[in-house]
Amino acid sequence: LGQIVSQLGDWFNAIALYSLLYELTGTATSVALVIVLQLLPASFVTPFVGMVVDRFDRRKIMIAADIVRGVVILGLLLVRTPGTVWIAYAVLIVAVSATGFFEPAKSATIPTVVAREDLVTANALSTATWSVMLAVGASIGGLVAAAFGRNTTFILNSLSFFASRSEEHTSELQSH
Length: 176
Description:
mainly alpha; 8 helices; disordered C terminus
């Protein structure tokens, strides 16, 4: 459930951000750069993440990544003019870099919380959740942006990172 909430938030503000940047710059290049920045930073942190995930508490890594993402996403509220578009790019670099730590820590945690015979199913569900949340998150986020404004999507996205932590903590307490 925590993964669903977090990944819903990952894609929730995509449409709002794309439309904001296109509106401010008038060029699709700014949107294309956002798409690149949603993928590229992880490739720079990934070579180092395995070492970190193996040496430190994975749960704490995931919590820290969600806190960083939850806080930094609020920076999108500052993007109001063409001169502040750079803030969106900086926010994405930090958020995606934090995701670069979160995802491997989550993947490495799955075998510790799932019985060995259920591991293939759990990994398949985890992967499928990402794909579904991409479609659902972007769709719902686009509808919310149209109905309530882009800033609402940015705030809800930020809150989703904290809500996913709360959901995982609640699930953890119930299992004990």
